[in-house]
């Protein structure tokens, strides 16, 4: 028993279901997103790409090979071809018949029920995707500062600058892989001119990095926690949110006295 733990304060932690609650249902499907809601996540994270005929769809890889019964690049298939694919049975028989969702279908089903962390995945393959995502949000009045929690993020930082110009009231995030482990204060300050979140690979997170992100008034939500130990480490380091396949690993921990 750790006597230093007090129940008096509970640290709030933003709980983001990565590709939905993807440990429990096939990633980036309606079933995984609903599971994230059921498990009380604050946000579902979704990966957005574009079909051959210019429709926005939700899938992580740039090909359909790993997560469906089809083959080929997302951008070489029409929406109709994509919608015919089974995106569930690779995960388990129980999810046979799950489809690759359309982006607008996810907005319509989940807006107001849970926050949506929208990742533009490989936007360099899909010229104009930033404007198209912005249009879908604007059609629904989701581009305005209101209670609907929407964040847009990407590893492609130029894409985030473009997106921010279309959606000035929506928070944006820069994703940062391992190559950003030596990110400088100057680089963070430049990100802060258009982004509100610096979301790094969890393996580059240190107390110093968290302090420096906060010093430029950004928040930090590392990815991707896949064990209780990883979630606990990030929690005790004091990040703002945790992007996880297991929403149940992220909860309001008791705060340690003096910590
Ligand atoms: O939300 C961040 C995380 O999703 C980035 O990595 O490869 O899972 O899209 P990836
Ligand atoms: Ca993602």
From TrEMBL:
Cited InterPro entries: GP_PDE_dom (IPR030395), PLC-like_Pdiesterase_TIM-brl (IPR017946)
Keywords: Signal
Protein's UniProt keywords contain Signal: yes
Cited Pfam families: GDPD
Gene Ontology molecular function: phosphoric diester hydrolase activity
GO biological process: lipid metabolic process
Span of domain GP-PDE: 13-254
Protein name: Glycerophosphoryl diester phosphodiesterase
Annotated organism of origin: Gracilibacillus orientalis
Lineage of the organism: Bacteria, Bacillati, Bacillota, Bacilli, Bacillales
């Amino acid at each position: 028993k750790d006597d230093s733990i007090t129940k008096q304060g509970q640290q709030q932690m933003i709980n983001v279901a990565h590709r939905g609650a993807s440990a429990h249902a096939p990633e980036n499907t309606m079933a995984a997103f609903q599971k994230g809601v059921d498990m009380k996540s604050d946000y579902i994270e979704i990966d957005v790409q574009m079909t051959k005929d210019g429709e926005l769809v939700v899938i992580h890889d740039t090909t359909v090979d790993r997560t469906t019964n089809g083959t080929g690049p997302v951008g070489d298939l029409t929406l109709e071809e994509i919608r015919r694919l089974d995106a569930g049975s690779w995960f388990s028989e129980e999810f046979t018949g799950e489809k690759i969702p359309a982006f607008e279908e996810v907005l319509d089903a989940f807006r107001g029920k849970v926050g949506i962390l929208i990742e533009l995945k490989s936007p360099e393959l899909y010229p104009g995707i930033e404007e198209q995502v912005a249009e879908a949000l604007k059609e629904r009045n989701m581009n305005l500062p209101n209670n609907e929690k929407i964040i847009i993020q990407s590893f492609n930082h130029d894409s985030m600058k473009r997106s921010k110009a279309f959606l000035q009231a929506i928070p944006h995030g820069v994703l940062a892989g391992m190559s950003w482990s030596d990110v400088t204060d100057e680089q963070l300050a430049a990100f802060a001119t258009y982004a509100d979140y610096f979301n790094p690979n969890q393996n580059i997170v240190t107390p110093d990095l968290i302090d420096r992100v906060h010093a430029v008034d950004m928040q930090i939500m590392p990815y991707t926690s896949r064990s209780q130990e990883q979630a606990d480490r990030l929690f005790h380091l004091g990040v703002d949110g945790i992007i996880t396949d297991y929403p149940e690993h992220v909860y309001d921990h008791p705060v340690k006295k003096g910590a």
